Amino acid sequence: QTWRVALEEIEGSVQHRYAERFAELVEERTDDVEFVIYSYGELSPSFDEIYTQLQDGAVQFGFGSGFFGGVVPENDVFSLSFVLTDDEWTNTQILNDEAFLWSDPLQSAFRDRDVQILSLVPEGWQVWAGNVEIRSVEDFEGVRIRVMDNRLLRQTYSAYGADPTSVSYADIYGALETGSIDANIQPVFAHQEMSFYEVQDYMIFGRHKPFVAAWLANRDFWDNLSEEHRQVIREVNEELVEYIHEVQVELNDRRMDQILEARPDVEIIDIDEETREAFREASMPVRDTYVEMTGERGGQILDLLLETVEAHRD
Ligand code: 6CS
User: Fold this and answer.
1) What is the pLDDT of residue 218?
2) How far apart are CA 212 and CA 163, in angstroms?
3) Which H or E element spans position 61?
4) Which residue's CA is the closest to the ligand 1 atom numbered 9?
5) 227 C-alpha to center of ligand 1: Å?
6) Cβ(18) to ligand 1 under 6 A?
7) Whose alpha carbon is nearest atom 5 of ligand 1?
8) ipTM score here?
9) pLDDT digits (tens, 9 = 90+) for 171-183
10) Which helix (H) or strand (E) covers residue 230, if one does?
11) From its phi and psi, is residue 98 left (phi > 0), alpha (psi between -120 and 50) or beta?
């Protein structure tokens, strides 16, 4: 049987590295499965279409990140800022802690929309970048910043006084080049591989949140798998938690070097702790919006995530 995987990112990305290793290990441990991986752009430039194919079962596996709130509103919990810790490996473990990942509210939120959530992949810190110098919350005033299409992200940046707008992933480069947007937000590797660094003069590290993608399967496909196949997949997903953390750290470091080599004039700004606190405070009301949007189940997911964060701090 052929299992198809749909990515939101291009070849060489964190999602691609994950899917490649996943396919390799599953193929090794089964004797009747082969994979076809579709990188971003190969199936459709529209995330909506890619997600529909996953929901319909035309593809068996895929990733859902910032745009996926349009399918599963509860997924927007991963769009909130300052919920996780300041340590990337701790965050990866929190998100993949059984008590959170396999909890009923999180699982049912995805299953109700025809997808099965299998793991959570942090792809590196989200980094603000653009043609404006941002050193404080106030500096966001009036900045036309591109965000992924979701209400919580728009609200977060409105709370900072910015003017958020949603542009498709494929159109960001042009929008930066023509000046129709001033800034956008990506993990370092994406600023590099999508060439955004060519048209951005500042990169601002606020460590406000990691970029998080949910690794998903079609629900009916998952339910109809043999016990043996399901076991192999779960086992491989568990092994990949540490693997992908190491890959993303190394990839983001390497891509940062490449950016600086190509554009030594890019200015790097590190947001200090006091200023991060101001960003944290300004972002807090967005948690209420999340609960208002997602109701009781969404509230339970956020509470459980916050509890899991606390458990990992001890
Ligand atoms: O900003 C975006 O739209 C895209 N960025 C990344 C790093 N992955 C997929 C996502 O949709």
Assistant:
1) 99
2) 23
3) strand 61-64
4) 8
5) 33
6) no
7) 186
8) 0.99
9) 999 999 999 999 9
10) helix 227-262
11) alpha
pLDDT band at 14 (very low <50, low <70, confident <90, very high): very high
Residue showing tokens 């709370």:
159
| Domain architecture of the chain: domains with CATH | 2-123+211-253 (3.40.190.170), 127-208+264-313 (3.40.190.170)
* Bridge partners, 221 (sequence order): none
Tell whether ligand 1 has an atom less than 6 A from the beta carbon of residue 61: no
**Which amino acid appears at position 218 of this protein?**
N
Q: Tell me, using a 6 A CB cutoff, whether residue 148 lines ligand 1.
A: yes
Residue 46: φ, ψ to 5°: -95, 120
Task: Give the integer Cα–Cα distance in Å for 13 and 203.
Answer: 19
Mean pLDDT of all residues in 190-213? 98
Task: State the amino acid at position 83 in one-letter form.
Answer: V
Ligand 1 within 6 A of CB of 187: yes
Q: Is 189 in the pocket of ligand 1 (CB under 6 A)?
A: no
Half-sphere exposure of 117 (CA within 13 A, CB side): 30
Structure tokens at 135: 């050193």
- Asked if residue 115 has pLDDT above 90, the reply is yes
Encode 268-291: b = buried (16+ Cβ within 10 Å), e = exposed: ebebeeebbeebeebbeebbebbb
Distance 75 CA to ligand 1 centre (A): 15
Secondary structure class of 118 (helix, strand, coil): strand
Which strand (E) or helix (H) includes residue 18?
helix 14-29
Q: 67 CA to middle of ligand 1, Å?
A: 8
Distance CA 33, CA 275 (A): 51
